[in-house]
Specification:
about 550 residues, Domain 2, N(10)-formyltetrahydrofolate synthetase, three-stranded mixed sheet, 25 strands
Length: about 550
């Protein structure tokens, strides 16, 4: 019998409670919840007005070391930590990104945790949920259709190569990465090259995650840049007179969604911006609402500390005036052995030497957390096959590297019971308030932001700005965008720009190929690698395991 199966005999999750009951216990009024069936609801923004004078709770950001392609259980760890805090009597809430059906049917499967550390109803959250992603797709593709219609009717005189706005779909489909539209003769439009991106990569998803209210949403949508005229001026959604209609499509999607963990704690699951070309965090509104209602809020940042945590610090915290108290850094024995040079086929072997070599990656991420003035608790997420010697060594090394605590987390197999020690360590780390500070002030120019990130967080020896990039930075600066926060677009599989450089790379040169504005979201994307915005399906994707039983039960989503 597996470890998880044994755990299920001992620790049974609490029954799924009506969401209105969960919300009332959380502190929401019934009038502030819009039910989407018995187990999910949207939360009205009126709660922020009602509780505007209430002090915020303590914010804990869950991040990770540089992950392997399979992931290291960061979402599962965030959920189990929330359950563990609930077990020791803390007033706690969880904030997570909404899963995308791209990875759901592709490589990773569902995005709602695993084992006894899940948010529920799992099937509904992983699939259509409350329709937010559909709203993002509709608003995005409406804008794309308007662009082509304006060209067709002679209302937008611009060459096809000057259009930068793609179309979107929330399914992995490599055949749509590069397409030609408008074929079939003059009556069907103007032929041009275009592309599709996955919905999580849409700037509208990033806008949804950063907007503070409906008015702010409307203004951000209007600022979206879709094309550039030959004289260098931008064409925006506002110019095309479609921003109002797009905002109408997004009106309900702006409201955070509330569900629950398997043990009954409230979970706000809202928005899901891409972690590479966007900021990779759940919505700012979800964090702000949770902080007014709970003493401790657990929020997850995408990928490793070099990406999700850094962007949380310089983009989310900047726009939302947030001050996180502590970070939980998720590490796994298998990932550290991989960083130490052990091939995937041998990760199940005990190998303390490879683990020690790979622990340099852990040290780098602890340094990143500490660079922001945050206390760092390392959560070693236990996997089957991990030996006690390996787990103890990771804990020991984490303390040597400067972590404020290191705990083996057994939340997958034991739920909240397996995360009590982690919860106690995190609660202790939040008791002295926050010393959080960004590593550069908000007035820092684009080049200096990039250089600071490269040297202090990634370990680069130098930064190379390609000639076209130099001109682009000057051009954006002249147009008043020179101090917008930089959102680095690079691989999540290495601290560097090169996914093959494992561990803690040093002495490399970070190449910046170009920069472009996400004016609606409010940041500048810096391209330090070739990031694929429309994933493809592999030979054995996750969808092959998904089935619907005659009784209506869905299997294979986790």
């Amino acid at each position: 019998m597996s470890q998880t199966a044994k755990a299920l005999d001992v620790v049974q999750p609490r029954r799924l409670r009506p969401i209105m009951e969960v919300g009332r216990e959380f502190g929401l009024l019934e009038s502030e919840m819009i039910s989407y069936g018995p187990f999910k609801a949207k939360v009205s923004l009126e709660v922020l007005k009602r509780l505007s004078s209430r002090p915020d709770g303590q914010l804990v950001v869950v991040t990770a070391i540089t992950p392997t392609r399979a992931g290291e259980g960061k979402t599962t760890s965030a959920i189990s930590l929330t359950q563990g805090l609930g077990r020791i009597g803390a007033s706690v809430a969880l904030c997570l990104r909404q899963p995308s059906t791209g990875p759901l049917f592709g490589i990773k499967g569902g995005g709602t945790g695993g084992g006894l550390a899940q948010i529920v109803p799992m099937e509904e959250i992983n699939l259509h949920f409350t329709g937010d992603i559909h709203a993002v797709e509709a608003a995005h593709n409406l804008l794309a259709a308007v662009i082509d219609a304006a060209i067709f009717h002679g209302q937008l005189e611009i060459g096809p190569s000057f259009i930068t706005w793609p179309r979107t779909l929330d399914v992995n489909d490599r055949a749509l990465r590069h397409i030609v539209t408008g074929l079939g003769g003059d009556e069907h439009g103007v032929p041009r090259e275009s592309s599709f991106i996955i919905a999580a990569a849409s700037e509208i998803m990033a806008i949804l995650a950063l907007a503070s209210d409906l008015e702010d949403l409307r203004q951000r949508v209007g600022r979206i840049i879709v094309a550039q005229r030959k004289d260098g001026s931008f064409v925006t959604a506002e110019d095309l007179r479609v921003a109002g209609a797009m905002t109408v499509l997004l009106k309900d999607a702006l409201l955070p969604n509330i569900v629950q963990t398997m043990e009954g704690q409230p979970a706000l699951v809202h928005a899901g911006p891409f972690g590479n070309i966007a900021h990779g965090n759940n919505s700012l509104l979800a964090d702000q609402i949770a902080l007014k209602l709970a003493d401790v809020v657990v929020t997850e940042a995408g990928f490793g500390a070099d990406l999700g945590l850094e962007k949380f610090a310089h983009i989310v915290a900047r726009y939302g005036h947030l001050r996180p108290s502590a970070a939980v850094l998720v590490a796994t024995v298998r990932a550290l052995k991989s960083h130490g040079g052990l091939p995937m086929a041998r990760l199940a072997e005990e190998n303390l030497d490879a683990l020690k070599r790979g622990a340099e990656n852990l040290a780098a991420h602890i340094d990143i957390v500490r660079a922001f003035g945050m206390r760092c608790i390392v959560a070693v997420n236990r996997f089957p096959g991990d030996t006690e010697r390996e787990l103890a060594l990771v804990n020991e090394l984490a303390i040597q590297f400067g972590a404020d605590g290191a705990v083996v987390n057994d939340g997958f197999a034991r739920g909240g019971d397996g995360s009590i020690e982690l919860a106690e360590a995190v609660l202790g780390a939040t008791r002295n308030g926050s010393n959080f500070a960004p590593i550069y002030p908000p007035t820092t120019p684009i080049r200096e932001q990039i250089q600071t990130l490269a040297h202090r967080l990634y370990g680069a020896a130098d930064v190379e700005f390609l000639p076209e990039c130099q001109k682009r930075i000057d051009w954006l600066t002249e147009r008043g965008m020179g101090t917008l926060p930089v959102c680095m677009s690079k691989t999540h599989l290495s601290l560097s720009h090169d996914p093959s450089l494992k561990g803690r790379p040093r002495g490399f040169t970070l190449p910046i190929r170009n920069v472009y504005p996400s004016a609606g979201a409010g940041f500048i994307v810096a391209l330090a690698g070739d990031i694929q915005l429309m994933p493809g399906l592999g030979k054995e994707p996750a969808y092959t395991r998904i089935e619907l039983a005659p009784n209506g039960q869905i299997t294979g989503l986790t």
